Amino acid sequence: MELVRDYYRANYRPERATLIVVGDIDPAAMEIEIHQRFGDWKAVGPPPIKPALGTLVTKGESADVFVVPGGMTSVQIAWTRPYDAAPDTFAKRRTKLIEDLGLRVLQRRLSTIASKADAPFIGAIAGSQDLLDSAHVVLVSANSEPDKWQEALTAIDQEQRRIQEFGVGQAELDREILGYRSDLQAAAAGAATRTTTTSLPCWSAASIRFSPRLPKTFRCSRRSRTASRRPRSIRPCCMHFPATVHRSCF
User: Fold this and answer.
1) Dihedrals φ, ψ of 165, to 5°?
2) Mean pLDDT of successive 10-residue segments in the chain (250 residues)?
3) Could you say which DSSP state residue 228 is in?
4) Which residues fall within 8 angstroms of residue 146, CB to CB, at 6 or more apart?
5) Is 183 exposed, middle or buried (0-12, 13-18, 19+ CB in 10 A)?
6) What is the distance between the alpha carbons of residues 244 and 227, in angstroms, rounded to a whole number?
7) Whether 239 contacts 79, CB under 8 Å
8) pTM score of the predicted model
9) DSSP 209
10) Is the dihedral angle over the CA atoms 21, 25, 29, 33 positive or is it negative?
């Protein structure tokens, strides 16, 4: 318990905190309330030393095999690019939205393949994440029978290459836009039923995102742009970066 308390005191400090308020509020009244609730918040102890994360090294394609006896066979293809630390802008969100839509199409295509009787893999997933403010990673992963891992790897590679080369169909895009909007609308409709006091969702570094649920202030800007996306422009943006291939048996 003391270890947890020390960590909290060292890292949860006024100078490291950002307070975000979302909703129809009276700014003056909110400022008074913030001062009342947080005005006496003082840091305890010295601030933590910022860890040295090192320098990213450019790496080409690579492949690795990890074996754990008795586990399920999994194949993964990952693309990495440097983390984008630029300020949040409309253009940045637009780029992310295009990537999200492309990955949603890829995810649905892989799910369709997995549903067939002679599928080379049992299930597959496609998504992206920002890893520890160091890299942006796009990952396509599939579980397969031990003797079908090569077929599974070939299938997911071919499907992402097909989207890269030919883009997506209008019907596919319309379906994902509808699903994307539905996710956002469901999140907004359920806001009043949330029991947590956290204002915004906290995404862990390991989370894979397909349709992030955004606060109300961001939802309109995304929804207003989705209708103008053209199928040829929707491609998972990862396809232009070196790939890392893993085969795992967990």
Assistant:
1) -85, -40
2) 89 90 90 92 87 77 84 88 90 92 93 92 92 88 90 93 91 93 90 61 32 29 35 46 45
3) T
4) 73, 249
5) middle
6) 34
7) yes
8) 0.62
9) B
10) negative
